[in-house]
Design goal:
The chain is mainly α. The chain has two helices and no strands.
Length: 65
C-alpha cells in the first residue's frame, strides 16, 4: 500500500479517529473519576475531536464517490 493510495489514507484516518476517541474518552473518564470539573482544556479537546471526525467523514465520503 503506497502513501498516495486511497486505502492508505482511509487506514490512517480510521486509526487516528480510533486513537483520538480513546484518548479523549479516557481523559473525560479520568476527570469524572477524580471528581474534577469540566474545564476549558476538556472543551478544546472535544472540539478538536469533533473537528477530526467531521473532516474525516468528508474525506471518507469524497473518496468513495
Amino acid at each position: 500500500m503506497s502513501a498516495q493510495s486511497k486505502d492508505g489514507l482511509l487506514a490512517v484516518l480510521g486509526s487516528m479517529i480510533g486513537l483520538t476517541t480513546i484518548a479523549v474518552g479516557l481523559r473525560l473518564f479520568a476527570r469524572k473519576h477524580q471528581h474534577l470539573p469540566f474545564q476549558a482544556d476538556d472543551l478544546f479537546a472535544n472540539i478538536s475531536w469533533a473537528s477530526l471526525v467531521i473532516l474525516s467523514d468528508s474525506i471518507f465520503t469524497n473518496s468513495y464517490a
